[in-house]
Amino acid sequence: MHSSPLSLAQLGWRPYFQQQLSLEEVELLVSNSANERLYLGRVIEQHRSGVVAITETGVFKLSQTPIQASETDKLCVGDWVIFNHENRFMRLLDRQSLFERKAPGSKVDTQLISSNVDSLFIVCSLNQDFKLNRIERYLALAKEAEVEPIIVLTKADQCIDSDDKRQQVQALDPFMMVHALNALDTSDLTELSGYCKQGKTIALLGSSGVGKSTLVNGLMGVDTQLTSAIREDDSKGRHTTTSRALRLLPQGGLILDTPGMRELQLSACEQGVSETFSEITELATQCRFADCQHGDEPGCAVQKAILQGKITERRFISYQKLMREQAFNSATLAQKRAKDKAFGKMINTVQTESRSRKKGSY
């Protein structure tokens, strides 16, 4: 990742993480005893066999015991971890931010995307992939994680109405940063250099083929990522990034590319959706009835705003869809956790009774 030693500050270390360390851990982190010393590292790669972490002294692949396997499965790129002299994972530090989604498909679980991110580049191309609904979905994810969203509209050189589309995105939030650019043009990429400051972590999210890998290559100044052309008939992209990896930018920041997501189901994201559609949630407080569903109820401030053209029907439908989706997925995941907890208690009871019977037989 880098030829010379890096400081913890360059890797994104800050007081939020420092204050989580116990006095004993601080002492062992600077210990001269090789057999007792602990190390601080940030996860830069994640594989099925384990994770790779970078420290001030180098890159290490962390090992785990079978008991720890379930815990390290919950690690993700961007995490800060403590490990020992045998490269064995010891502890995960609390995250300052976390991106997660409902696992794709029918699987009832949560999939971690990345953690401890400062800014999110929401990448959308200005071809047939351009959809305001999709951008709103990513915005809800960013606001739930309390991470600054920056919209990056790529392939502006191939679009005749890029200014119009940029204004459509800006209308979602007048205070949001929106950039329309050609990711292959280095002069265009200078617009993004201000986000790449030392110690800051940027993540990229977007569909396949929108130019995330091309964007990473341009910001890195070298071809660190493979790229491939999109299908011209439908503007759909092919997956070129197949795993998540954190890389150091020449400007001093860190950047995380992620595989293209054809499915981004939200869960436990009510606050993020509410903030993304703040004008609708504000109007909802003005409805005559507290439990207004914003349909044909009398005195509905939301429907009145739609009729007056203050908000669009498209945006209201998008808001309702995301609210229903996150509520349904949250309830489903909660049911699974309750079942898993009940099953765990049953196993513990059976094991306790088994041990008691064995003792009684002696």
Could you explain the architecture of this structure?
This protein has 362 residues and is an alpha/beta fold. It is built from 11 helices and 13 strands. The chain has helices at residues 15-18, 23-29, 69-72, 132-144, 162-170, 186-189, 212-220, 270-276, 278-284, 301-307, 313-361, and strands at residues 38-47, 50-54, 59-61, 80-84, 89-92, 98-102, 110-115, 119-125, 148-154, 177-180, 201-205, 245-248, 254-257. The longest helix is centred in the C-terminal third of the chain and has 49 residues, at 313-361. The radius of gyration is 24 Å and the shape is flat. It starts with 14 loop residues before the first helix and ends with a helix. The relative contact order is 0.10. Residues 225-235 and 237-242 have low confidence and may be disordered.
List the helices and strands and how they pair.
Blueprint: H1 15-18, H2 23-29, E1 38-47, E2 50-54, E3 59-61, H3 69-72, E4 80-84, E5 89-92, E6 98-102, E7 110-115, E8 119-125, H4 132-144, E9 148-154, H5 162-170, E10 177-180, H6 186-189, E11 201-205, H7 212-220, E12 245-248, E13 254-257, H8 270-276, H9 278-284, H10 301-307, H11 313-361
Parallel strand pairs: 8-9, 8-11, 9-10, 11-13
Antiparallel strand pairs: 1-2, 1-4, 2-3, 4-5, 6-7, 12-13
Helix pairs in contact: 4-8
